[in-house]
Protein 1
Amino acid sequence: MSWLLIWVLLVARLHQAVSLNSSTAPVIPESTTPEPYNRTQYCKWPCTCPETPPSCPPGVSLIMDGCECCRACAKQVGEICNEADNCDHHRGLYCDYSSDKPRYEKGVCAYLLSTRCVYNGIIYRTGQSFQPNCKYQCLCVNGAIGCVPLCTYEPPRVWCPTPLRVKIPGQCCEQWICEEPKRGRKAAPRHAMAALSSGKNSWQQDCMTQTTSWSPCSKTCGRGVSLRITNANKQCRMVKERRLCNIRPCEVDITKHIKPGKKCLNIYREDQERNFTISGCTSKKLYRPKYCGVCTDERCCIPYKSKTVQVEFQCPDGDMITWQVMWINACFCNLSCKNPNDIFADLDQYYENREIMN
C-alpha cells in the first residue's frame, strides 16, 4: 500500500470523528454554589453617636442598638428590623427574618408566642399595664402578671382596743377606724365620721381630695417645719403645705421635771402662757402648748396625738400673717427612736406591747 492511500484513509476517519462529536451536545455539570451577592452592612465602626440620645414616644424603650454603639428607640411590632435596629424586648418582641430567605437581612418585629398574658378573658401584651379594678395596678411580663396595690391600709396602733376596717361611700379603699368603748359611744366613732366627711370635702364634683400625713418635724427640739401634700383647694391642685412644729424646747432641761423613781416624762408643759414669735412677728393670742418629754434610759418620746391650729401673727410693720402650727395633745415614750429626717419613718410607727407596758 502506498503512502498516499494511507494518508487518505486517515483523513477520512478524522472527518468521521468530528461529525459524530458535533452532533452530540457537550454535558456541563451544574454548579451547586449559590449566586454571590453583596450583604448590606448595617453596622459601621468606629461608632458615631449623637451627643444626646433620641427622645422615644411614650411606651417605647430606649435600648442599645444591635451594633453595641448607640442608644436608639426600639422597633415596635410590625416595624422593619435588622442587625442594627433591635426590636423592643421589653414588650416581648423579636426580629422575624423568615420572609427574607435566603439573605435573612431584614425582618419584621413580632411577638413571641409565650409573652402574652390572659386575665379574665382579656389578652394583654408583655409590657402592657392594666388596672383590673380600682385597688390594683398590674403589668404583663413575659406571660406572668404582677400587681401592686393602690390602697395603703394603715392598721391602728396597738393602743387602739377595737380596730375596724370600714367601707367609705364613694371611695374604693377601706379605712381603719378605732372604736372607743371606754367612752361609751353608741353612735359612730369620731374617726369614722371624720373619714366619712373627708370623702365629701371636695370643692368640685370631679375632684376627690387627697392629703398625705404630715412629715416628722424637721428638728427634735426647737422650732422646725413639717410638710404635707394636698389638693384640698378650689383649684384641686396638688400643693405643698407647711406647718410650724416644736417637739420640745431646747433651752429647758426637762429631766429635772421627771418624778423621783421614774425614768420618763411623757408631757412637759410650761407654767405660764406666752406668745409665739416668728421672724419678728408675735402671735395675737397667748398660748400654753404641750411638749413631748424625755427619758433617762434608751427610750424616746414622740407625739402620737396632735392637731393643726391656725395662729395669727402681728408684724411690726402692721401686716398680719397666718401660720399653721402643730398642737401636741399627747406623746408616747418607746424604744423606737427615729431620726426626724428618716425617709422610712412612716414604716416604723407601730410598737410592741412590751414598750407600752414600760
Protein 2
Amino acid sequence: MSRNPFADESPLFDGAPADEPLFLQPTSRDRMIENGVGTVIGVFVVLTLIFSVIEGFSASATHFFLGIALLMFSAVTVQLISWFRLGDLDPKFKLAILTMVLGVCLLVIVANVYFWAPPTVNPVCGNTAAGNAGGEEQALMYDTIDKQCWLRCSAGHGLDRSPSAPGVCKPFAAA
C-alpha cells in the first residue's frame, strides 16, 4: 500500500491517541431526553403502522404501502442512530440523522392525517344525487370550467354532454 500524500500527520490533540474520545460523552440528562423523544416517536410510528395495516386491509392498499414505507424509513434511521451511538459514524452524520428523524415525524403526521381525514364532500354538488334510471344514488363531480354538477358514470358508461341530453350516463357502444 502506498501512503496518502494528502493525509495530515499532525495530531489533533496533545496526549496519547487512546485518551481522547471520538465523540463527547453524553450526560445522563442528554440520554434521558434522547430516550424520551425516541420513545414518543417510536410509539407514534408503531401506532401508525398498526393503523396502516388495519386500514390497508379494509379501505385501500395505499394505506398499507404507506405503512411499509414508514417502516423502512424508520429502520434505516434506527440503524444510523445505533451506529452513531457506537461511534462508528463521523459527527457530521448527526445533521443527516436529525433530518431523517424529522422526516419520520413528518411521515407519521402525513400518514395519520391521510388515514383519519373525513371523506370529502363536494361543497357545490354534495356527494350523491338520484340517478337517471331506477332512482339509485350516483356520485357527482363538479366541472370547474362549466360550473356544473355532472353524474359520475359507472364502469362501461360515458357521460353524454350533447345539447340534446346533457348529463346522461349512456353505455359505450360495442366495437
Protein 3
Amino acid sequence: MSQAAQRPAGPAVRGGARPTLEAVAALAGVGRGTVSRVINGSPRVSDKARAAVEQAIAELGYVPNRAARTLVTSRTDSIALVVPEAETRLFSEPFFNDIIRGVSAELADTDMQLLLILVRTKKERDRLATYLAAHRVDGVLMVSVHEDDPLPNLLERIDMPSVLVGRRSDLEPLSYVDADNAGGARMAVRHLLRRGCERIATITGPLDMEPARARLSGYRRALEEAELGWDEDLVGRADFTETGGREAMRGLLERRPDLDAVFCASDLMAVGAMQVLREAGRRVPDDVAVIGFDDSIIARHTDPPLTSVRQPIEEMGRTMARLLLEEISEQGRARRQVVLATELMVRTSA
C-alpha cells in the first residue's frame, strides 16, 4: 500500500491547501471581520450572516488556528467566574447555582471555557490577583461583591473586561447586572402593611454588601411612606444564611415579642426565621407573616410555602455573560449597568 493510501483522509479543501479565513469570508459573502466574530463567539452577528459563515466553514473544512490566534490577539478563550465565598455557601445557596446556570447557558454556543474560582483567604486573593494581572483569562465575572473587596479595583486598574453581579455602591465604575433590591423590599413591606401588619421586623444581609443595604433601604422607605416610625429593635442583622436567620429571629423575639411580620433579605434566612417562630409557638402567617427574597426553589418547599420577592437570578447570569462577551470582542466599549425588575410572588406565608 502506498504512503498516500495510508494517509488518513482530511477535510475536503479546494486545491489541497489549508482553507483560510479569507476563503470562508468569500464563500459566505461576508467580510473577514464577520467571520472572525462568528469564530470568536461574538453576539454582534446577525443570524443570517452567522448561518452563512457556519455553512462555509463546514463546506471548506476550515479549522481555526487557535495557537496562532492566541499569539496575535492574546486571547485565552477562557472566562473566570470569581466567588469570594467559602465552598459551603457556594453549594448550599440556590443563588449561586442559578447564576452559574445562567452564565453557562449563555456561553454554551461559544468557544469560551468557564473557570470557577473560589476566594476564601488573603493568600488565595493575592494569588488570584497575580493570575489576573498576567491576563491569563479574557474576562472576569464576579459575584457576592463586598464593599472592601480589592479585586474590583484591580480589575479596573489592569483594564480587564469584567462584569459584577451587584455593585459596591451607586458610583460603581465597572459593568454590573443587578436586581431592583430596594424596589423589591419596598414592595414586600407594602404588601405586609396592606395585610394589616403594624410591627414589621426585618432580617438584613451583611451591610458591607450593596444588595443588603438596598433591601434595608426599601424596608425603611415603605415604613416611612406609611408614617410608621423607625424602630431599631425591629432590625435583625445577619449574613444571608439559614443559621444567621435563626439567630436574628431569636434576637427579634427577645426584643419585640409583639412583632407581627418579618421581611427577610433572603429565602434562606426566612427558612431559619420560620423554624424559630415554630419553636416559639408562633403560627405563620396567623401570628407572624413572613416574606423572603430571591424566590428560590426553597420558597416553594417550605411549610407553609414562602412569599418571596423574585429576582431573575438565572437571567442575571445570562445578562452578565452577554455583557462580558461584548466587552471582550469590542475593546474600549463603554461600561454598562443593567438593573432587572423584581416581582412579589405571594404564597401562604404572607
